[in-house]
Amino acid sequence: MSRALQSEPIPPPDPLIATSCFDFLLIELVPLAQRITDKIHARDKVLKEELDRSLNIHRSVPPPSSTTEPPMKPDGSTTGAPSTAAGLDDETREALYFRLNNMGYRVGQGLAERFSTNRPRPVTPLETIKFICKDLWPLLFRKQIDNLKTNHRGIFVLTDVRFQPLSRVSVDRRAGPRAAEELVRRAQVYLVFPAGAIRGALSALGIEATVQGETTEIPTATFQIKTKGAKA
Amino acid sequence: MEARIPSIACIGVIGRHNNPLHISLFPAIGPNSTQEPRDKLAFTFMLNSSLDIFEARMPSKTSQDFGLLHALDERIALYGWLTNTGVKLVIVVDMEGRIAPTPEAAKIGVLGLRGGDLLPAFNALQTAYVRLLQNPFYVPDDHDPKLVRGHRALEIQSPKFIREVERTGQAWYPGIVTI
């Protein structure tokens, strides 16, 4: 297989894939990142316990029974089924957001490199943001950004009134207004990867920024872009 | 004296912060297909000298093709390309780099290069760089002097990218349509 690939150095320029692939990936990405974060946390916990124990051993006279104890704990207790995004403690949520954001960052960098060819170079930050709205967004989410606001001092707010990844989430109407709140809270995590992608694309085009994705009402999503050195 | 035609002497890929990402050298082919190696230091200086020209032309240029940057002497000329992501591609052309294979080809050597002659080469290089970015094991931030702490090699190590650059440099001749 690899030999066959090597004999033909140039693959077809743009292989076609179904647009739904990215939707599916995005859906799976969040639980995956959560599982990875949980695993790493559990491992750290075990390692820390082990370290504590070994420190105790070295400090005191080692009792013969504790040295022969197996160092690994059965990890069934620490890694259970992944908990839902809503019921996370702050530290885990932070780690999860960081992981998702960085995944998006790398994807954004690649996308900007690939799709900014054959286009005039954006000179001002506004032109770069327009590139994100008009070129990158349709590639990722099949529609342009609906609204772009800026204070002309480095802060941009992009609004998508029907954000693709949020367009299919649903809520149990019988559960009342509490359920809707809960839904908004849970949907938050699905905006981290797109926010990272925006940050990556901006960084590739020479703008350092922080991007915050938020939703107040499904399926609307807003992304606040704060470029470096922006004044509020 | 055989008729000689232009060939690529050196390809430089330079990062956003003017850090060299990759430099490939291509020896001139002399009579009896002997190779005259290029001096790496000299070409590094040439690439360096072109950076100011990028800087100077950047405000007025909105296309990616920077064309002829400068002609150093009667043999060496530098051509530039700036991607929207700030990566500079520089091709150094040796106007007498190789011997003309046919008398028709020799006429090109006399006429000199036209503006679009290097376009296929730049396109091939840019495609190679885009492919590199699509490789998940290549992390662009590891090649950014502002983000990397300590002294580490910032050059591109990807064998596929390097191979593609080498192939572009060897395949190009004036009037080639695609590489």
TrEMBL record, chain A:
SUPFAM superfamilies assigned to the protein according to its UniProt record, in alphabetical order: Ligand-binding domain in the NO signalling and Golgi transport (SSF111126)
Region ranges (Disordered): 54-86
GO cellular component, one term: cis-Golgi network
Coiled coil (UniProt feature): none
InterPro entries, alphabetized: NO_sig/Golgi_transp_ligand-bd (IPR024096), TRAPP_component (IPR007194), TRAPPC6/Trs33 (IPR037992)
GO biological process, one term: endoplasmic reticulum to Golgi vesicle-mediated transport
Family recorded in the similarity comment: Belongs to the TRAPP small subunits family. BET3 subfamily.
Protein name according to UniProt: Trafficking protein particle complex subunit 6B
Organism: Cryoendolithus antarcticus
Automatic annotation (TrEMBL), chain B:
Entry-linked PANTHER family: TRAFFICKING PROTEIN PARTICLE COMPLEX SUBUNIT 2
A GO cellular-component term linked to this record: cytoplasm
Protein name per Swiss-Prot or TrEMBL: Sedlin
Signal sequence residues: none
InterPro entries linked: Longin-like_dom_sf, Sedlin
Organism: Cryoendolithus antarcticus
Transmembrane segments: none
UniProt-listed Gene3D superfamilies: 3.30.450.70
An individual GO BP term: endoplasmic reticulum to Golgi vesicle-mediated transport
Lineage: Eukaryota, Fungi, Dikarya, Ascomycota, Pezizomycotina
